[in-house]
Amino acid sequence: MNKQRGAWILVLIALIVSAGLLFIDSQSSQGLLNSFDTGEPETIKPPAAIVKEEPVSKTELESIEPAALEKETVVTQAVGIPEPEPVPVPAADPFLVVIDPGHQAKANLDQEPIGPGAAETKYKVTGGTTGIVTKKPEYVLNLEAAELLKSALEARDMKVILTRTTNDVDMSNSERAAVANDNEADLFVRLHADGSENPATSGFSVLIPAKENSYTSAIFADSELAANHVIQAVSADIPLHQTGIFYRDDMSGFNWSKVPVILPEIGFMTNVEEDQKLSDPAYLTNVMNLLADGIVQYANNN
Predict the structure, then answer these.
(1) N or C: which end of the chain has fewer CB within 10 A?
(2) Domain locations in the chain as residue ranges
């Protein structure tokens, strides 16, 4: 009897323990059975830093303010490959004109070769002509004209060198040409005024080296081109003497030149009307401006 009662007590205790375990398991968030693999895949949440970007619609893009787009562009350029630096283009040297105001206060009648290696000789430099009305010496007018021409050319972005800036010099024609040669001038302009035994003779003209001149064969074509441009520019407002261009092979100032050379005869001081005009600052300035225009046209086409 006692043995039977003890067995029932053990069964009762076992039932109580089992019920307690089942109760505890039901209250757990995981459950005891969850410790076993159920075969279902585990869901992995993406890291918070990874955000899926949705495409921007055309309407949304148009609503973005330009300032915001500029900032975005700047950032893109900053992190991208830098653009190569532009290679600077060296500036061209300015066109160089050497102006020789013809003659000087005191002539030098010593002789010099007419050209390199020549046996024939000429006066180094003569005194020039004189105004029939104004009595102005040609060398004075030539310097006045040269200074006006210099200003006109510099205003057109050209570089200018004068062989002389005063009348009290002693420079032969070959020495004047040497100034142009030594400076590698683009054009040598020998400024003069003309004279004639006929007081009716007038007009502007340009002298250049002759084509058949052996001293100047290398510079003939460019000299003729410069003369043509000058005649075209000046003749628009100033009367010409005959055809306007004259070819010479007997001038030492030409024969010693290694660079293109022209000799503008700006008018006849032996003509009453032209002599007075050449001493009028407004008229002389106009002639020099036209001469400068012709030189610029030559420079632009050469």
Answers:
(1) N
(2) 112-300
